[in-house]
Amino acid sequence: MIMRRTRSSLLTLVLMVLGTSVYSQSAKLVINELKANVAGGCDLVELRVIQGGSMLDIALKERNDVVLTFTEFTVDQDDLIVVHFNGFDATCNPKSSGNETMAVDENPNFTYKVNIDNAFDWYTTDPGLVGTDNVISLLNPDASMMDCKRIYHTCQHLGR
Fold it and tell me: Which residues fall within 8 angstroms of residue 113, CB to CB, at 6 or more apart?
């Protein structure tokens, strides 16, 4: 495995082996980009870390359904996480990449063609985003709102 993280990678690895975490606080993220209606249902959500910390129990929600709850791994400020939808589908995840928790290139693009080597790649079995009239939410471990984005089909839905 190639470790390319520039901050805290070795410390994170040592503390994970010891069963502890680098951070006692949860990470803070924003929904950076949404890509819905991708061919084959291979939709994407990009998250950007604005404060480093633990990802444990942070959840991504579409409308009323939690589509992914993160397990324990740590991220640094400015790290990216890409959530791939339809993760069990051979088109969307051709070589069945696992979720990356140690390094952004843990499952490198040269082997897993849909992975992005400068982001942690995570997969959900959810079949894809509804690209019209939708709400995507990011929840803290206590289920409070961290961030959300609304998707509208037309401007008339804005009430103007």
Answer: 94, 95
